[in-house]
Amino acid sequence: MPQGAFVGREAEAAALAALLRRTPPETAVLLGPAGVGKTRLAAEVATALASRRLRPVTALASATGRAIPLGAFAGVLPSHLPRTGPLELLRAARDALNRQPDGVQPLLVLDDAHLLDDVSATLLDQLVGERICPVLATVRSPDPAGTPPAALLRWTWVERVELAPLPVADLERVAADLLSGPLAARTRRVLAELSGGNPLHLRELVASATAAGSLQRSEGVWSLVGRPPAPAPLVDTTA
Predict the structure, then answer these.
(1) Which among 172, 140, 135, 177 has a CA at the least distance from the CA of 157?
(2) pLDDT digits (tens, 9 = 90+) for 151-162
(3) Which label site among 1, 80, 179, 229 has the fewest CB atoms less than 10 Å from its CB?
(4) Are 127 and 94 in contact (CB under 8 A)?
């Protein structure tokens, strides 16, 4: 099931874009449960900000990558960084991120920052603390005390943004976009209630109900025939 249109976070996207354009650089930390739309919002903001002056650089932390120093940055750093020790590795990583074309500043987009390895967490703390570049990080909540994102919040230029569930009207727009057509009133209500305002849960519900034949189209309108099956459990990598 495709992601569908970007719906319901337009105000947050505009506010984040304005914040990340500021000088000196600022940081935003997006918090929310799995599937609420943190990763999608961060990607939309990064796309909107990409320009001749600002280049998005995307890093992804993961549970498996925590055993590897700078594992979260493996996709954005050169492969020839020194391996003599953590301090040299950290310095080289900072230099690599700063070596952008003339007049271009990196915008670090860091997904699942609560899963950072220790060296990556130190690099992030330096980038934010010294305001080297703007940073947009996503964190799954509840935010465990002592994780790298929690430490970032000590800086006054770090904005904490809690993403709330989408309202019913926006969920209806998401569902209609996924199905390329309108939904019956009862179907809209049931899907909104079952998804709990979580757009990923909604996409899973639409996919499973369509596959099971309990979501059907008649005369151009989609309707539930009975209760839709429950979606598959969300995996840990979902943001």
Answers:
(1) 135
(2) 888 899 999 999
(3) 80
(4) yes
Global pTM value: 0.83
Tell me: pLDDT of 232 over 60.
no
The closest of 51, 62, 67 to 17, measured between CA atoms, is 51
CA pair distance 198, 35, nearest whole angstrom: 6
Looking up tokens 């498996």, which residue turns up? 64
Strand order in the sheet with 27-32: 54-60, 105-111, 135-140, 27-32, 158-162
Tokens linked to 117: 């390895």
DSSP string, 199-228: HHHHHHHHHHHHHHT-EEEETTEEEESSPP
The residues, any chain, with a CB within 8 Å of residue 47's CB and separated by 6 or more, are: 56
Give the Cα separation of 230 and 57 in Å (integer). 36
Tokens of 32: 């929310």
Query: Is the dihedral angle over the CA atoms 125, 126, 130, 131 positive or is it negative?
Result: negative
Cα 78 to the center of its chain, rounded Å: 24
